[in-house]
């Protein structure tokens, strides 16, 4: 049974030299890797498309949530104006909103400080330890 490889008739496997078999395996492996990379690119493109749509929808939801918070604040002012003068209700709600913003800013700053520096310290230390271990192993092998 002769199959065609790269446009030429190939001899049966039992008649091929080791060099021919290695070359054939190398070509097949290269083709397999290229095909897998093509498949991975197509899959990532599809997932990226869905991620982009999802991010846009989350952004839209955030805009509408912002409008909702504004309406809720206006409702709080109107409700308090039934008991207090309008200026006092408005001032009270404004102060409350700024207090909430301040607390969130302080918590955010604390979290941001935990994230800096942006270097993966544990990974860097692990890599340095691995390099040192390899150096020591090479030195022990020479000695």
Automatic annotation (TrEMBL):
Pfam families: Phage_holin_3_6. It comes from the Bacteria. The chain crosses the membrane at residues 57-80, 86-107. Keywords: Membrane, Transmembrane, Transmembrane helix. InterPro entries: Phage_holin_3_6. This is Putative membrane protein YqjE. It comes from Actinoplanes octamycinicus.
């Amino acid at each position: 049974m002769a199959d065609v490889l790269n446009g030429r008739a190939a001899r049966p496997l039992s008649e091929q030299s080791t060099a021919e078999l290695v070359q054939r395996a190398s070509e097949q492996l290269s083709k397999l890797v290229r095909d897998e990379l093509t498949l991975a690119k197509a899959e990532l493109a599809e997932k990226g498309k869905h991620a982009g749509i999802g991010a846009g929808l989350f952004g839209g939801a955030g805009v509408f949530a912002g409008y909702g918070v504004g309406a809720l604040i206006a409702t709080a002012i109107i409700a308090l104006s039934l008991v207090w003068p309008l200026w006092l209700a408005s001032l009270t709600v404004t102060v409350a909103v700024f207090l909430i913003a301040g607390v969130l800013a302080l918590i955010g700053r604390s979290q941001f400080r935990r994230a800096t520096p942006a270097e993966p310290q544990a990974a860097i230390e692990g890599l340095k330890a691995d390099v040192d271990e390899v150096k020591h192993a090479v030195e022990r092998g020479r000695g």
